Amino acid sequence: MKIAVVGTGYVGLVTGTCLAEVGMEVTCIDIDVKKIENLKKGILPIYEPGLEEMVLRNTAQGRLHFSNDIESSIQDADVAFIAVGTPPGEDGSADLKYVLAVARSIGKYMNNYIVVVTKSTVPVGTAIKVKAAITEELALRNSYEEFDVASNPEFLKEGAAIEDFLKPDRIVVGVESPRAEEVMRRLYKPFLLNGHPIIFMDVPSAEMTKYAANSMLATKISFMNDIANLCEIMGADVNMVRRGIGSDPRIGNKFIYPGIGYGGSCFPKDVKALIKTASENGYSMQILKAVESVNENQKSVLFNKVMDHFGGDIAGKTFALWGLSFKPKTDDMREAPSLVIIEKLLAAGANVRAYDPVAMPEAKHSLGDTIVFAKDQHDALIDADALLIITEWPEFRTPNLKVLGKLMSDKVIFDGRNIYEAKEIQEAGFAYYCIGVKTNSHDVATV
Ligand code: UDX
């Protein structure tokens, strides 16, 4: 099959590369000339474990191509994926200008039956707009070529995207015709050898599935953060509560880890967009409004604990931060809780020394020289009054507490991800604060 993937961002690049990996002829297209030049040399715009090797291998074997030329890439393609950005507009709704511009180009250049698949997360009703844009372009050149639109939401997790694509839990495809269903079934056949399902449905339902999935996951997280805050007040331990409820298969033990709030490119944007879509159509998503507001509060919980420990004055103090990205194994800083915490620490007159295994170059874009970017995790600790765990990178999990004690000027740890055992840290002479457990006598819950 011949595939065109328009947009070489995170979703497009992973999709195109994984399709080439199973033997398809793929061209990834972008208007950004520099980006395509780099990709041809094997320089990727994002960090994703395993992706670079896969891009290099498939490029070398001649199955994966990069191009700025949408015209020739669309011609003869069986499937065209639209995987361009849908940035949130001022009002929180997804901006479709890039998606519709690609649709127009497809209408301009397609020369045989093609299935046009929206892969970007787009509001319910977008496929109709895509279809209209293509039809209009075809009409302008008096063409009667047939095409179908399909919606194929992605469920990739950053840091595990390749594994998620190659071995998906499920593939959801919204189609309008048996012909498009057949094409999509053929496309995804190599990825369904593990017996997991491809679920066909109508297009609006597929579009809604993506929002419903991410909103449900965001709801689980905010719910647990709310429970965590109450646990602190009531003297309960959220880690125990999590295990207690997670063993019920109806609840499940995934995505119920409390922390410093969800971030990233999907949850915040999608929750906002669904609230907005609903309100535009006269409905109020009460639960999601609460999910959003709990998440905003949660980003301040660790800072509030810092202020409480230091009696409300941290001017001139130095804080070591381990982790900056919104989660491990990615350099993505979008909506990262670290940004909120750093802003608050700086506003209160404190100094920040941060270390992240991969996200520091990305973080420098927004933070500039307002903080010190440390050489390694130990360098971040020099003369620090406290250590804050922001992202649960594996390398932060087993610290040498003796070394920490020597490097830091005060022995205090604020663990925003609950990665340590309170007893072990406290026995080494540290004050220890985490989320949802009252670990220190002067630790008060902050809601
Ligand atoms: C998410 C969805 O998981 C994925 O299916 C979708 O395609 C895109 O959005 P991603 O944003 O890569 O993926 O990250 P994910 O691993 O889901 O984590 C999202 C956020 O939730 C992170 O900030 C993480 O720290 C937080 N989180 C996750 C928690 O706070 N607690 C949890 O139990 C799980």
From TrEMBL:
InterPro entries: 6-PGluconate_DH-like_C_sf, NAD(P)-bd_dom_sf, UDP-Glc/GDP-Man, UDP-Glc/GDP-Man_DH_C, UDP-Glc/GDP-Man_DH_C_sf, UDP-Glc/GDP-Man_DH_dimer, UDP-Glc/GDP-Man_DH_N, UDPglc_DH_bac. Belongs to the UDP-glucose/GDP-mannose dehydrogenase family. GO terms for molecular function: NAD binding; UDP-glucose 6-dehydrogenase activity. It comes from Adhaeribacter pallidiroseus. Residues 320-422 form the UDP-glucose/GDP-mannose dehydrogenase C-terminal domain. Its EC number is 1.1.1.22. NAD(+) binds at D30, K35, T86, T121, E158, K269, R334. Pathway: Nucleotide-sugar biosynthesis; UDP-alpha-D-glucuronate biosynthesis; UDP-alpha-D-glucuronate from UDP-alpha-D-glucose: step 1/1. The keyword Oxidoreductase applies. GO terms for biological process: polysaccharide biosynthetic process; UDP-glucuronate biosynthetic process. Substrate binds at F155, L156, K157, E158, K210, F255, I256, Y257, P258, G259, G263, K327. It catalyses: UDP-alpha-D-glucose + 2 NAD(+) + H2O = UDP-alpha-D-glucuronate + 2 NADH + 3 H(+). Keywords: NAD, Oxidoreductase. It holds the Pfam family UDPG_MGDP_dh. The active site is at C266 (nucleophile). SUPFAM superfamilies: 6-phosphogluconate dehydrogenase C-terminal domain-like, NAD(P)-binding Rossmann-fold domains, UDP-glucose/GDP-mannose dehydrogenase C-terminal domain. This is UDP-glucose 6-dehydrogenase.
